[in-house]
Specification:
It comes from Paracoccus solventivorans. It holds the Pfam family DDE_Tnp_1_2. InterPro entries: Tnp_DDE_dom. This is Transposase DDE domain-containing protein. The chain is mainly alpha-helical and 96 residues long. The chain has a domain of 46 residues. It has four helices and two strands, in the order E-H-E-H-H-H. It has a two-stranded parallel ribbon with strand order 1-2. The protein is elongated.
Length: 96
């Protein structure tokens, strides 16, 4: 989390609904947009509209993983992987 840098909000699915994660995010000043699990006695409110936007990012990564080089991460350097992901995104965007 520290390597990611500062963030205004973290959008995650129910699998990340843990008190220790929510506490860590609150200490960093980050809003947790995480729906509560069904096992919580009192659900914690979250921004449902922001959570719905998470789907767009997940679909984008799903489309990028159609490119074998991006899915398996052949590149050893982060800059080369970023370049591969950008090229795949350009081709994917161009096909639409």
């Amino acid at each position: 989390m520290e390597a990611a840098g500062p963030a205004h909000r973290l959008i995650a699915d129910r699998g990340y609904d843990a008190n220790h994660l929510r506490r860590l995010l609150a200490e960093r000043g980050t809003e947790a947009v995480i729906p509560s699990t069904t096992s919580r006695k009192t659900p914690i409110p979250y921004d449902a509209q922001a959570y719905r936007a998470r789907n767009l990012v997940e679909r984008m990564w799903c489309r990028l993983k159609d490119w074998r080089r991006v899915a398996t991460r052949y590149d050893k350097l982060a800059r080369n992987f970023l370049a591969s992901a950008q090229i795949a995104a350009l081709f994917t965007w161009g096909l639409n």
